[in-house]
């Protein structure tokens, strides 16, 4: 059976803790209320941990009000942006890095508009999640709720072990999908090779 919604992921977490499933996140049970309160933050935290391909968004940002000092330009991050990936000249991972800094909800840099940004966005569509991400997210939820729900530290350790393995597998699998980006051959690298 495939997992198609937030409740399914929470039920996988409950399975890991040998607890009864919930009908949905609006269920009146105490554990359903806990899942409703904690699900989004657990998902967003896991999304920020790696440049998951299913959660990468490519956008061009217009310039915003320039910062008072430090950088020449500023760009407002999209509302659904959880993490700005390294800024590059052509917007691709293999491009030369452009110095930049995220301050609050703005990206500040000396680069001019429009700015090509690769970012991790808040992808809430569970049907787009690969199985290993779902496993990592459900284990993260189980780890968070283990002691609160069961009162037994052993369940936390089991959930933590599953989470670590699932996260490692998910990151490795996601990293090898697609073409591996070649690093930009900067003048410094070219000089070192001669």
Describe the structure.
The chain contains five helices and six strands. The longest helix has 23 residues, at 153-175. A hairpin with a 2-residue loop joins strand 4 (100-103) and strand 5 (106-109). The chain has helices at 6-16, 30-48, 131-150, 153-175, 187-193, and strands at residues 56-61, 73-76, 81-84, 100-103, 106-109, 115-121. Helix 1 (6-16) crosses helix 3 (131-150), helix 2 crosses helix 3 (131-150) and helix 3 (131-150) runs antiparallel to helix 4. The chain has 194 residues and is of the alpha+beta class. Helices cover 41% and strands 15% of the residues. The protein is elongated and about 55 Å long. Strands 1-6-3 form a three-stranded antiparallel β-sheet, with helices on one face.
């Amino acid at each position: 059976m495939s997992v198609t919604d937030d409740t399914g992921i929470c039920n996988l977490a409950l399975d890991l803790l040998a607890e009864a499933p919930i009908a949905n996140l609006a269920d009146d049970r105490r554990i359903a209320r806990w899942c409703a309160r904690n699900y989004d933050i657990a998902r967003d935290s896991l999304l920020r941990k790696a440049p998951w391909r299913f959660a990468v968004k490519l956008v061009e940002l217009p310039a915003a009000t320039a910062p008072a000092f430090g950088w020449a330009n500023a760009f407002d991050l999209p509302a659904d942006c959880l993490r700005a990936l390294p800024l590059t000249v052509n917007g691709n991972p293999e491009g030369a890095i452009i110095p930049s800094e995220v301050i609050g909800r703005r990206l500040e840099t000396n680069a001019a508009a429009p700015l090509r940004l690769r970012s991790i966005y808040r992808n809430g569509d569970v049907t787009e999640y690969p199985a290993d991400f779902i496993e990592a997210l459900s284990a993260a939820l189980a780890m968070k709720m283990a002691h609160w729900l069961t009162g037994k530290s052993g369940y936390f350790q089991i959930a933590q072990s599953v989470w670590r393995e699932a996260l490692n597998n998910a990151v490795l699998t996601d990293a090898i999908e697609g073409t591996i980006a070649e690093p930009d051959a900067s003048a410094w690298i070219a000089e070192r090779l001669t």
